[in-house]
Design goal:
Largest sheet of chain A: 5 strands, parallel
CATH architecture of the largest domain in chain B: 3-Layer(aba) Sandwich
CATH architecture of chain A: 3-Layer(aba) Sandwich
Number of domains of chain A: 1
Oligomer: heterodimer
Structural class of chain B: alpha/beta
Number of domains of chain B: 2
Distance between the termini of chain B: 62 Å
Helix content of chain A: 40-55%
CATH topology of chain A: Aldehyde Dehydrogenase, Chain A, domain 1
Largest sheet of chain B: 7 strands, mixed
Order of helices and strands of chain A: EEHHHHHEEEHEHEHEHEHE
Strand content of chain B: 15-25%
Strand order of the largest sheet of chain A: 7-6-5-8-9
Number of helices of chain A: 10
Structural class of chain A: alpha/beta
Distance between the termini of chain A: 87 Å
Strand order of the largest sheet of chain B: 14-15-16-13-12-17-18
CATH topology of the largest domain in chain B: Aldehyde Dehydrogenase, Chain A, domain 1
Shape of chain B: globular
């Protein structure tokens, strides 16, 4: 007699916990043939607001963690990702990727996380400097995290897209509220399990699954989000992000700003440069 | 409990200075100015002109063209042509020399420019002469040198200019804001359409004359004068690639809304409500000077003005007494007098705004102090003002007054100082005074502000990045970081 498999329930990830949507809603995630793979939580406005509140509370801790330590935690994410390769390859294959393409996407995702992990204690040296002012002053400029960042993940590649958008947000000490790929949400949910077992403090990364057309306007308008990576937004959603960003002068990275895969200037987009002056004298 | 030393009840010092008036003769202000488009001054297609007045006398100085949409279109077309044919392709080393040349010519004519800046804007001549103009020339010098070194500015990228930059600047530092915008834009290879503020257009038009004399190729710098509608036409023009704005947060938000969906690159330098934090161990006499400079420099028409004073509770009364005495020695009046500390308010509209907010401060229960000084009969003036007993919820503690008005609050612990300092949607600047080095760095880490002045205030330098957190805007002006606002790049 064959054994009945035990299926996973795919939920949200907020504050280091896995709640269902408060709305009680879910939607089917389909495979490439249109068969239902699983039902996933359909996040609501209230879920998003909960996530932002918790992300805000997590900023001071994460930003206050040394770059050295943040880098180690991000490297630990890569280690745990490596450990779960098989699951990701399976999920990406179910989404329609060939096995070879799925394997290479997972490998690229792990390598990208390692690449960004290494920036955490170096980035400020590239982007900050001492300013040679014309007077007896010590004058230094250094990057600081912007705060809470909304990350709209591209529909595909569902895993590499997520890692590519999220990692540079985490490097300088921002916390994130992530809208996962709507069509291929399962890799993002599995990734939250990776986060949860990688020493990433709860609340630093919060992941919502659901309908982007429903959630993007709330993300765009929220007064306690400081920046939005609209890399995975449709053209209409990107305009909506820009319009909403006006209310509290959010920093917005547009889809058109998508260059090649990895760059320290992606990190720079989610930082604020602080300049400090002090007189020199006896 | 700290020992309170009673302040002797000495009357405010009355030093009578002989007048020491700067001559206005050096200012060659023309009766009427056209628009500077494609290398020459032209009559506006709008056929409209408006007067610009001296706010210290309310007398007209000149008539200035009001650029309509067609005029702005001509300016953008000239800038596009110059970008495509001349300035974009030009070798960086050659571009650098043009900008160096402009810097030199500004230095050469700095007295004349300072006088016109004061006549048109109302700021004390000692400030326009000793602060604004040296910084303006310095800014052109600094960025000139970057023009042929852009590939060294940021590792791993191949920089290129954005194209045509539309720039809208305010009236508080007309020339300095021009320099902050124009110098990096030109150095990075962009061409410019600049819209100066309607109350202070004259010095930008003089810089246009300088650019023409310097042989800057036609169309590289265009100056279109006018009010809000002209500015909206500049930032809204389809063929503008980059918009840079300095001004109020309200207008900045309008511009950001207008630009949504346009893919124009935007930088905003908006309002502020800076906290100026004085700890009990601060060098008090120096701190008093820092506070005075922080709020009364340029009549408080400064986006980074230290307008919210946070004084540690155990020195509050003593500090406020000292401050009141120092306030009483400020010389308020004719901006052309070299002894004047506080000049004219820039416009009637701004004077009304300041008056309204000060009235709200009294109505809401704060206690007002103004020195016993005599204001000129004509022109727009406002007495240096401070408020004590201010609550965080008062409008004078929340809103940007943009005038010579200081709101004073107190705190007990460093944590409370940080919380109060950051309790604002703005985040442009902050000040800290303490003798303890570790506390300075502790505070600097926690203050949400783009510029933190420790044991000093209102210092600026071309090499030093300036710009805000939160609703004070985004992007930096000055220093290496200031180049990024005018560059696009390919990653290697």
């Amino acid at each position: 007699m064959s054994r009945l498999d035990v299926r996973k329930t795919y939920k949200l990830y907020i504050g280091g916990k896995f709640p269902r949507s408060e709305s009680g809603r879910s939607y089917p995630a389909l495979d490439a043939d249109g068969e239902v793979l699983a039902r996933v939580a359909q996040g609501s406005r209230k879920d998003l607001r909960d996530a932002v509140r918790i992300a805000r509370e997590a900023v001071s801790g994460w930003a206050g963690t040394s770059g050295y330590n943040r880098g180690q935690i991000m490297y630990r994410i890569a280690e745990t990702l490596e450990d779960r390769r098989g699951t990701f390859v399976e999920q990406l294959s179910a989404g329609g990727a060939t096995k070879k393409a799925a394997e290479s996407e997972v490998a690229a995702s792990i390598d990208r996380m390692v690449w960004y992990a290494g920036w955490a204690d170096k980035f400020a040296q590239i982007y900050g400097n001492l300013n040679p002012v014309a007077g007896p002053f010590f004058n230094i400029s250094a990057p600081e995290p912007t705060g809470v960042v909304g990350v709209i993940v591209p529909e595909e590649p569902a895993l590499l897209g997520l890692i590519s958008r999220l990692a540079p947000v985490m490097v300088p000490g921002n916390t994130a509220v992530v809208l996962a790929s709507e069509r291929f949400p399962m890799p993002a949910i599995t990734f939250t399990e990776v986060l949860n077992s990688s020493d990433v403090p709860g609340g630093v990364v919060n992941v919502l699954t659901g309908f982007k057309d429903e959630l993007v306007p709330w993300l765009a308008d929220h007064m306690d989000i400081n920046a939005v990576d609209a890399g995975g937004a449709s053209p209409e959603q990107a305009i909506r992000v820009q319009e909403g960003a006006v209310h509290n002068v959010k920093r917005v990275v547009l889809p058109s700003a998508n260059g090649p895969g990895q760059s320290p200037y992606r990190i720079a987009a989610f930082t604020e440069t602080k300049t400090v002056w002090h007189p020199k004298g006896l | 409990m700290a020992i309170e030393i009673a302040t002797p009840a000495t009357p405010p010092l009355k030093w009578d200075y002989a007048g020491s008036k700067e001559s206005a003769d050096i200012a060659n202000i023309e009766e009427r100015y056209g628009l500077f488009i494609d290398g020459e001054f032209v009559s506006p297609k709008s056929k409209k002109y408006f007067p610009t007045i001296n706010p210290a006398t309310e007398e007209p100085l000149a008539e200035v063209a009001e650029a309509g949409e067609a005029d702005v279109g001509d300016a953008v077309a000239a800038a596009r042509r110059a970008y495509a044919e001349v300035w974009g392709p030009m070798d960086g080393a050659e571009r650098a020399k043009y900008v160096f040349r402009i810097a030199r010519m500004i230095q050469e004519r700095s007295r004349e420019l300072a006088v016109v800046e004061t006549l048109d804007g109302g700021k004390p001549i000692k400030e326009s002469r000793d602060v604004d103009l040296p910084l303006v020339a310095g800014h052109f010098f600094y960025y000139a040198g970057w023009a042929d070194k852009l590939e060294y500015a940021f590792p791993g990228i191949r920089p290129r200019p954005l194209g045509v930059a539309g720039q809208v600047i305010p009236w508080n530092f007309p020339l300095l804001m021009l320099a902050w915008k124009v110098a990096p834009a030109l150095a990075a290879g962009n061409t410019v359409v600049l819209k100066p503020a309607e109350t202070t257009p004259l010095t930008a038009l003089m810089v246009a004359q300088i650019a023409a004399e310097a042989g800057l190729p036609p169309g590289v710098l265009n100056v279109v004068t006018g009010a809000g509608a002209t500015g909206a036409a500049v930032v809204g023009h389809d063929d503008v690639d980059k918009v840079a704005f300095t001004g109020s947060t309200a207008v900045g938000k309008l511009i950001a809304t207008q630009l949504a969906g346009s893919h124009k690159k935007l930088t905003l330098e908006l309002g502020g409500k800076a906290a100026h934090v004085i700890f009990e161990d601060a060098p008090l006499d120096q701190a008093i000077e820092g506070v005075i400079n922080g709020i009364f420099f340029n009549q408080g028409h400064v986006c980074c003005a230290g307008s919210r004073l946070l004084v540690q509770e155990n020195i509050h009364d003593r500090f406020v007494d000292k401050l009141k005495r120092r306030l009483s020695t400020l010389r308020v009046g004719d901006p052309m007098d070299k002894n004047t500390d506080v000049g004219a308010i820039n416009s009637r509209a701004q004077l009304e705004k300041i008056t309204e907010l000060v009235d709200s401060g009294r109505d809401e229960g704060a206690e007002m102090f103004q020195p016993d000084c005599v204001l000129p009969d004509r022109g727009f003036f406002f007495k240096p003002t401070l408020f004590t007993n201010v609550a965080q919820s008062h409008r004078i503690a929340q809103e940007e007054i943009f005038g010579p008005v200081l709101s004073i609050l107190s705190f007990r612990t460093p944590e409370e100082a940080v919380e109060k300092a950051n309790n604002t949607p703005y985040g442009l600047s902050a000040g800290v005074w303490t003798s303890k080095g570790s506390r300075i760095l502790w505070m600097a880490d926690r203050l949400q502000a783009g510029v933190v002045w420790a044991n000093t205030y209102n210092k600026f330098d071309p090499a030093s990045p300036f710009g805000g957190y939160k609703e004070s805007g985004f992007g930096r002006e000055g220093g290496r970081h200031g180049l990024l606002a005018y560059m696009d790049w390919d990653e290697e």
